[in-house]
Amino acid sequence: MRTFLPLVLALIGCGPLIDREADEAEPLQFFSSSEQGLVTCAERQDTGYRSGAAFAITVVSADGKPAERDTANAYAVMQQAAANDGVSIAVVSGFRTMAEQQHLYGCYINCSCNSCNLAAQPGYSNHQSGHALDLNTSAPGVLNWLSAHGAAFGFSRTVPSEAWHWEWWGGGPGGGPCGSTADHCTSAEAAGCGQYGCGCVDHQCNGIFCPGTGCSAQHAADCGAFGAGCADGACAGGTAPGSGCTAKETLDCGSVGCGCVDHQCNGGVACAGTGCTWRETHDCAAFGVNCVDHQCAGGFGTGNGCTAKETTDCTAQGCGCVDHACSGGNACSGSGSTARNATDCGGLGCHSVDATCSGGSCPGSGCTGKQTTDCAAQGCGCVDEVCRGGWCEGTGCTARQALDCGNVDAGCSMGRCVTQTGTVVATPDAGAPMPAPDDGGLPVLPGDSGPTEVDPNVLPPAPVEAAPTRLELVRGGCSAAPGVWLLGLLLWARRRRAPSGWRGRAGPSRR
Ligand SMILES: [Zn+2]
Questions:
Q1: Ligand 1 center to residue 103 CA distance, Å?
Q2: Confidence of residue 218 (pLDDT cuts 50, 70, 90)
Q3: Ligand 1 centroid to 37 CA: how many Å?
Q4: CA–centroid distance, residue 473 to ligand 1 (Å)
Q5: How far is residue 308 from each of residues 189, 291, 311, measured CA to CA in Å?
Q6: Beta bridge partners of 61
């Protein structure tokens, strides 16, 4: 009776059963124990059939039986879950070739073999389409486990009379050993998306040159547990090396003059922020250097420690920019100099003012425009960043100015050489302030190879430092590494080749 049930169901309108086939009685289990639990990913190409039409199918081995690769991946994940519950599932029959199905069908038609069991017409069995697996449901606990949990892994029982016949048509948690990605895509899906320059997440194209982060929610959460972001299938940004942006995000932000940090446009010529991830900022700070646009700069390093936008914005206010803050010039407090400027000029016996050596032993007063203006409002001159002379203490002259005046037998007052009668006889050397010494090279951070792709399976160690106080959390590994330039070149070349529609929309984005 049971062998006719599918036929009856099909005749009364249970359409799907026609395609899902009925097949033979439960096959004998003749696998050896060493084959159990073993999905081997060595691939071979074969010819599959669905609804009579042939197609190329990729076959691997599950429990020693041929099985379509994606089905085998889903099965391996389910099999492991069952094993964790103490249930030992095994494949008894998987993918079948046309010859094998023809043999079984002949047995059924001629009642000459295989116990005359029902078999689907050749070309119409889902053992030929790769979706069906016959499982060892007579083994203890297997059928109960499958009935309770199979659906969660994408497997369903499709032939009511055959408890052993289970099919997978997609779904489940993803993964599996044979070329599937960490983000719930089969290797075939990932390869398909890859042809469009995209990653794959949850069975959809996502990341790299496509919109999206390129990471599943779980993957992002796993990275986030370590304070890292996730981009293009790898922990990146935040506490992890890398910018934390996909290739598309980086291109999109770059097209509007910005860098990209943690999936947001940041830094550069046009965007707010330092242009660095938390890790980049941390790594640079360990050397007393700030971070700007994924590079160490400012502080005790070279450069002013400001992005192009920060510098432009400060300049518009009549100020310089130092370590991401407006400083110096005619309008802002501060010396307008980095710690390195001050150290370098100090080595010459001078102050650093607006990133040039001034005052002390160097030409110039050693004061910014604002400092000079502020002192003048008190009736004083300004010397080495302090109000001096006039109504204030001192002569109002730097050490160099006093020396220069002495060379012409005059005294120095308020930056000018005067005789004892008060006649101005000379002006001390008023040459342009000296540029601060600069070796022109960014510090190379030991052991830091710059942003690199991280093995998503190897999460970075949890950060031991407290969270940064700055609002713009930006940092990355330091960047003058060749790999970064190579990546940039590749991205540039890729962009040149990409259709114009791929340039993406302009503007800061959060995806
Ligand atoms: Zn079957």
A1: 14
A2: confident
A3: 19
A4: 56
A5: 41, 13, 5
A6: 40, 66
Supply 73's token pair.
Answer: 């991946």
pLDDT at residue 439, rounded to an integer: 43
Ligand 1 geometric centre to CA of 108 (Å): 14
Tokens 């096959």 belong to residue: 27
With tokens 């899902």, the residue in question is 20
CA distance 303 to 32: 69
Residues 474, 278 contacting (CB under 8 angstroms) = yes
CATH, domain range 2-168: 3.30.1380.10
Q: What is the 65 CA–ligand 1 centroid distance (Å)?
A: 13
Helix pair angle (247-255, 482-497), 10° resolution? 80
Dump pLDDT digits (tens) for 462-511. 333 322 222 222 233 323 333 333 333 344 444 333 333 333 333 333 33
> Residue 194 is encoded by which pair of tokens?
């890859």
Q: Dig out the tokens for 245 from the structure.
A: 């942006």
C-alpha distances (whole Å) from 253 to each of 91, 437, 503 are: 50, 34, 10
Q: How far is the CA of 505 from the centre of ligand 1 (A)?
A: 50
Q: Can you tell me the distance from the alpha carbon of 13 to that of 4, in angstroms, rounded to the nearest whole number?
A: 15
Tell me the sheet residues that pair with 167: 132, 156
Counted residue by residue, the chain has a size of 511
- Give the distance (Å) from ligand 1 centre to CA of residue 14: 18
Q: 94 alpha carbon to ligand 1 midpoint, in Å?
A: 8
Q: Is 93 helix (H, G, I), strand (E, B) or coil?
A: strand
Is the per-residue pLDDT at 67 higher than 90? yes
Q: Determine the distance from the C-alpha atom of residue 353 to the mean position of all C-alpha atoms in its chain, rounded to a whole number.
A: 40
179 CA distance to ligand 1 middle (Å): 25
The pLDDT > 90 percentage for the chain reads 46
Can you read off the two tokens belonging to residue 126?
Answer: 């889902």
CATH code 3.30.1380.10 region(s) in the chain: 2-168
User: Residue 54 Cα, ligand 1 centroid: separation in angstroms?
Assistant: 19
Q: What is the amino acid identity at position 42? A: A
Look up the pTM and report it: 0.56
Question: Distance (Å, rounded) from C-alpha 149 to C-alpha 487?
Answer: 44
**C-alpha span between 301 and 445 (Å, rounded):** 11
Distance 341 CA to ligand 1 centre (A): 78
- Classify 306 in phi/psi space as left (phi over 0), alpha (psi -120 to 50) or beta: beta
Report the Cα 64 to chain-centroid distance in Å. Answer: 38
Give mean pLDDT, residues 126-152: 95
Ligand 1 centre to CA of 186 (Å) is 23
* Residue 389 C-beta-side C-alpha neighbours within 13 Å: 19
Query: Exposed, middle or buried, 247 (CB in 10 Å: 0-12/13-18/19+)?
Result: buried
Distance 165 CA to ligand 1 centre (A): 4
Q: Which residues pair with 212 in a beta bridge?
A: none
